[in-house]
Amino acid sequence: MNKQSMFHQLALIEEKVGGLYQEIGQLKEGMITLLEENKNLLIENQHLRERLQQRERELEKRPKPKAASGSSSRTKKEKTQPAVGEGYDNLARLYQEGFHICNVHYGSLRTDGDCLFCLSFLNKQG
Ligand SMILES: [Zn+2]
């Protein structure tokens, strides 16, 4: 191998290493994006679980309609709809904690500050 071809080989390797270095950088960036996404999904998942448990507790609290067990007990019709104020508070809190409550992006993390869909939804409810 003469000097010139050795030099040529080195230049080729240098080029390859440079390309690999770039690829590593891109992979690192992709990895960071995935980690962030994963973290957001974990938060979102936890939040939705909490919401679900809360909803289940609310449903359990509500008395179930029983067959008449005595003539002394009067059966009043329970409202099947949750109190409007309560539902609104939950949604407002969810929004404050950084989540979308609009139909468009419901449950996902708000990454760009205020969402006009969410705000108009809140205004309509309030
Ligand atoms: Zn929204």
UniProtKB/TrEMBL annotation:
<keyword id="KW-0479">Metal-binding</keyword>
<keyword id="KW-0236">DNA replication inhibitor</keyword>
<comment type="similarity">
    <text>Belongs to the YabA family.</text>
</comment>
<dbReference type="Pfam" id="PF06156">
    <property type="entry name" value="YabA"/>
</dbReference>
<comment type="function">
    <text>Involved in control of chromosome replication initiation. Inhibits the cooperative binding of DnaA to the oriC region, thus negatively regulating initiation of chromosome replication. Inhibits the ability of DnaA-ATP to form a helix on DNA; does not disassemble preformed DnaA-DNA helices. Decreases the residence time of DnaA on the chromosome at its binding sites (oriC, replication forks and promoter-binding sites). Tethers DnaA to the replication machinery via the DNA polymerase beta sliding clamp subunit (dnaN).</text>
</comment>
<feature type="binding site">
    <location>
        <position position="118"/>
    </location>
    <ligand>
        <name>Zn(2+)</name>
    </ligand>
</feature>
<keyword id="KW-0862">Zinc</keyword>
<feature type="binding site">
    <location>
        <position position="100"/>
    </location>
    <ligand>
        <name>Zn(2+)</name>
    </ligand>
</feature>
<protein>
    <recommendedName>
        <fullName>Replication initiation control protein YabA</fullName>
    </recommendedName>
</protein>
<keyword id="KW-0235">DNA replication</keyword>
<feature type="region of interest" description="Disordered">
    <location>
        <begin position="53"/>
        <end position="84"/>
    </location>
</feature>
<dbReference type="GO" id="GO:0008270">
    <property type="term" value="F:zinc ion binding"/>
</dbReference>
<dbReference type="GO" id="GO:0043590">
    <property type="term" value="C:bacterial nucleoid"/>
</dbReference>
<dbReference type="GO" id="GO:0006260">
    <property type="term" value="P:DNA replication"/>
</dbReference>
<keyword id="KW-0963">Cytoplasm</keyword>
<dbReference type="GO" id="GO:0008156">
    <property type="term" value="P:negative regulation of DNA replication"/>
</dbReference>
<feature type="compositionally biased region" description="Basic and acidic residues">
    <location>
        <begin position="53"/>
        <end position="62"/>
    </location>
</feature>
<dbReference type="InterPro" id="IPR010377">
    <property type="entry name" value="YabA"/>
</dbReference>
<feature type="binding site">
    <location>
        <position position="102"/>
    </location>
    <ligand>
        <name>Zn(2+)</name>
    </ligand>
</feature>
<feature type="binding site">
    <location>
        <position position="115"/>
    </location>
    <ligand>
        <name>Zn(2+)</name>
    </ligand>
</feature>
<comment type="subunit">
    <text>Homotetramer. Interacts with both DnaA and DnaN, acting as a bridge between these two proteins.</text>
</comment>
